[in-house]
Fold each of these.
Amino acid sequence: MAVKKITPIAQRTVDSMKKIIFFIMPFFILLGYSHAAEKYPADITAYLNVADDCQYFSGEWDSTLPKERQIEIEKKSECHV
């Protein structure tokens, strides 16, 4: 059985695939470690959630909104952070 000779184009393709695998695989391997962060304690998590809500609702405020919506936003954005 004769071994088929690889053409230069095929060799370049194989080489480029090897380079891609060499540089991309470590990225995917390390990606799992980058998301393995510590969880915050419950009180810190609650604080961050309230702070996020306050920031969100403060951006919602607009003087052209209906009074009902303004009152609703004021109640939700009363932050005790």
Amino acid sequence: MKSEQFFFFYIFFVFLSCGKDEPEVITVIEPYVSEPLSTENLITSFNLILNGEEQLGTIDQSIRLISFETAGADIKALSPKIEYSDKATISPSPDVEQNFEEEVAYTVLAENGEPNVYRVNVNNRPLSDANEILSFKITLNNQVIEANIDDELNEISFNAGSIDISNIVPSIEISEHAIVFPESDIAQDFNNLNKYTVTAENGAQVEYKIVVNKPRITGFSTIVGIFSNNPMLLYTGADMVVHGEFLDIERENSKIYLFDGQNKFPLIITDIQKTDQEFVTFHSLNFQVPSDIPSNPNYKIIYEDNNLTAESEGIIDLVAENVPNPVSLNQTLYQRDDILELTGENLPEMIAIPSNGSLYLIANSGNYDLMVNDDKTLLTLTLDGYFLFPSYYGRVDEEKTIMLLGPNRRAGATIKAIFD
């Protein structure tokens, strides 16, 4: 009995001793909860090497479209550089070359298995072959001048007259994707600059010649007037005048001639009239059609100045046979009702006399008694028309140029007389 009591007392003592010396430790073990899988499945960057340069694609996240704009690139076997969401995977692998001539799809798989499909579209247009100058503008005396562009001749021309062109800044518009040299909006000395070069995107080049103060023939007529249109009917010996811009026959190496398509027949200028206006110098050049030029229905008037050429639009139908040749008049001064007697060779049955701004064609009719003898060596006319005489209009004596006209009003030589 004592032994049992002693054992109980010993256990109780040990229990009390432990409770006094050591704190109670309670360990709480929570249940295990796993971290959620990522749902991120975006492509954030997509690069391709196009024409030797890295190009960043445009990503439209709303429709999952990645697009590129390029030209003339080889896109049949390209490995893209792609950045995408952490913990996601992508297929096909960026290391695998793809043919981007067709649309390519990339699938980004989030960590949780949710897919996202992106389409990659490369718009690879052909390299442009356009290499034209579309507009060429300069400013002269505070005025914007639009130059003339001739794409057939590959020529740009503008008029400056006598204005200084040593420091002109052109504004040039060219084909899309092309480049021009010298560049637009750069000051140039157009006394020395003679061309611009336009290079297309595909490398094709066109050179445009620069022409300042380009000569131009604007028209021609007899010194009396125009009696026939295109072609103008003329005899050799006809007195003519040609009009135009910058027809400076006094410049070194300049010349003017009749041209039949093969042969050049020089013209001797007998009188020069020049008028300067802003940006333009107008010329009128008088000449007589040489008598030694052969008949031809297709002559043109050509002006040359070094490398520049001006050609008449109209043509001349020229006859060198049976040419009217006035020799002399019976008087030097004529008054109303005088008889005009003209001697010569191959005299026609029509003449033209200018008066008071009009041109009177005179032939045998109810109004005129013009007669030509059978040998065509004498022409007579009674000058009874008051309108032919300056005195009727209160003016002094006036020298008039009488022109001989053959069949179909073919214009020939002239002779001068004074009318009262």
